[in-house]
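We emphasize that the prediction below concerns an isolated chain of 29 residues; any contacts that depend on oligomerization or on bound cofactors are therefore not represented. The input was used exactly as deposited, without trimming of termini.
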Amino acid sequence: MNIYIIIHLNIIYLNRYFITLIINECFII
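Result of the prediction step, given as a token string:
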């Protein structure tokens, strides 16, 4: 597997994680 692909998948995973955090913050407020 290419390292670039792994990094790209990690960035996508982190983006999804932060989006869910932002959505949770909005629902809490």
